[in-house]
């Protein structure tokens, strides 16, 4: 069973590289602050969010490594992120917005690189498992969905690729399909944004989201 029974509210942004998460996440955090002036908003990211997590991010995004090492480091960074940032914030009733969370591990290490679902489920249980046997998950996951070719064209205009962004279109199609599979299996948690639309149309969609906070 997955849950977030804390007084806080947990939102994650997901999607393949170049889908447009970073373009919208700051303004979205600002919108949430305006809408819920009595609640503190914590904006964070994965891999990262803590001093150790940011160091691990540098390694993960740049150093070639074995797939299992990569998954273990992603979850190690997540464990630190949960303990230091996410869980205390949720317990204190804050709204946490994270640029990526565990769906990214299932999509990239699982769908993209082929790590078994069993291993990912074990890591998820280990890292996010609670004493009441539930697994901490976001209350809401906003998935920016678009074809890999469109994302690649957008990325190539603005930055040099990191280790993941150098992967080919087939990789990103597998990542995308795993995100969509997970969304289909948990429609209550996921909100899918058609990220091929203009930034203005996407922003309107985000503005119209009803949040049961
Ligand atoms: N709806 C859109 N239409 C056209 N271009 C867009 C749109 N959204 C974002 N972009 C552009 O695409 C590029 C990639 O966007 P962005 O960096 O927000 O993606 P991202 O999902 O955060 O990627 P990553 O996960 O790799 O950080 C940027 O140059 C951005 O301006
Ligand atoms: C959390 C997480 C991330 N990744 C990958 C996905 C992206 O390529 C990078 C993060 O870069 P971003 O520009 O901040 O989105 O890391 C992953 O493979 N597995 C994960 O669990």
Automatic annotation (TrEMBL):
Q: Which InterPro entries match?
A: P-loop_NTPase, Thymidylate_kin-like_dom, Thymidylate_kinase
Gene3D superfamilies per record: P-loop containing nucleotide triphosphate hydrolases (3.40.50.300)
- What is the top-level taxon of the source organism? Bacteria
Q: What is its EC number?
A: 2.7.4.9
Domain Thymidylate kinase-like, by residue range, is: 13-202
Catalytic activity reported:
dTMP + ATP = dTDP + ADP
Q: Which GO MF terms does the UniProt record name?
A: dTMP kinase activity
User: Mind telling me which SUPFAM superfamilies this protein's record contains?
Assistant: P-loop containing nucleoside triphosphate hydrolases (SSF52540)
The UniProt function text for this chain reads: Phosphorylation of dTMP to form dTDP in both de novo and salvage pathways of dTTP synthesis.
Q: What is this protein called?
A: Thymidylate kinase
């Amino acid at each position: 069973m997955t849950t977030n029974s804390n007084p806080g509210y947990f939102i994650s942004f997901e999607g393949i590289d170049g889908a447009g998460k970073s373009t919208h996440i700051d303004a979205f955090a600002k919108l949430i602050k305006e809408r819920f002036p009595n609640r503190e908003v914590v904006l964070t990211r994965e891999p990262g969010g803590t001093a150790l997590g940011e160091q691990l991010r540098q390694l993960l995004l740049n150093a070639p490594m074995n797939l299992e090492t990569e998954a273990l480091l992603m979850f190690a960074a997540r464990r630190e992120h949960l303990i230091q940032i996410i869980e205390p914030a949720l317990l204190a009733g804050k709204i946490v917005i994270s640029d990526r969370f565990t769906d990214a591990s299932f999509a990239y290490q699982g769908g993209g690189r082929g790590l078994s679902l069993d291993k990912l489920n074990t890591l998820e249980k280990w890292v996010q498992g609670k004493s009441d046997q539930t697994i901490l998950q976001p209350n809401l996951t906003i998935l920016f969905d678009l074809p890999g070719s469109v994302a690649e064209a957008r990325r190539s205009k603005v930055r040099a690729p990191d280790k993941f962004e150098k992967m080919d279109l087939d990789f990103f199609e597998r990542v995308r399909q795993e995100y969509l599979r997970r969304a289909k299996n948990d429609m209550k948690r996921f909100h899918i944004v058609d990220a091929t639309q203009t930034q203005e149309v996407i922003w309107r969609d985000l503005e119209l989201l009803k949040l049961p906070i």
